[in-house]
Amino acid sequence: MPAKSPTGAFARAQAKGEEALRTAMLDIAAGLLAAEGPAALSMRRLATAADCSTTVLYRLFGAKDGIAAALYREGFARLRRRLDAVPRGGDPAAYLAALGRAYRANALEEPHFYRVMHGEAIPGFVPDEESRAAAAASLDVLREAARAAVEAGLLRADADVDEITDTLWAAAHGVISLELGGHFPGGLGEERFRVLTRAAVEAFVP
Predict the structure, then answer these.
(1) DSSP label at residue 201
(2) Among 96, 200, 206, which residue's Cα sits nearest to residue 158?
(3) Could you tell me the pTM of the whole model?
(4) Whether 121 and 198 share a structural domain
(5) Residues 153 and 187 in one domain
(6) Contact at 8 Å (CB) between 93 and 149?
(7) Are 54 and 80 in a shared domain?
(8) CATH assignment at residue 95
(9) What distance in Å separates the CA atoms of residue 172 and residue 113, rounded to the nearest whole number?
(10) Reported confidence tier of residue 94, pLDDT bands at 50, 70, 90
């Protein structure tokens, strides 16, 4: 069933300012992508779903390709906010585990953005260097957590922080992708995530 904008959603978002309007349009675009596939990401289709003019969308996103780029960057921006909100506490190991859980929760709550972020949703879309840099920056908090674990002696002193970060990210992404694909029904996804991410961390334990 085609995605539709809630009654008055465009007007309410517009009243809150440009950033709220842009976020609302991206939420509608993500819904269209899920319901109708990448062909629905046209200015005309999005304008119809949002009950606004295409002029508004061109101002917000520049062109059709700008919608895909905006979805990509918004997905990583939401991830960064989610990870930044995780309390640090005094235990580096517990903090790393909490970041992992937050990463998975964000992916499961924002599956359409997550698929755009990892190149699965929009055939042919290639993020530019600026977008890739913003994506990499979203994992800075994980990188710093890995560094803290190394400095605390919980992970090998000779371990490369970027290698640790990339390994944990790859492990988490692999399980989450399978879970989103329906391969881990019930509570299996959470269990498999815990086992694999723990194994990834243990690869760097002294």
Answers:
(1) H
(2) 206
(3) 0.85
(4) yes
(5) yes
(6) yes
(7) no
(8) 1.10.357.10
(9) 16
(10) very high
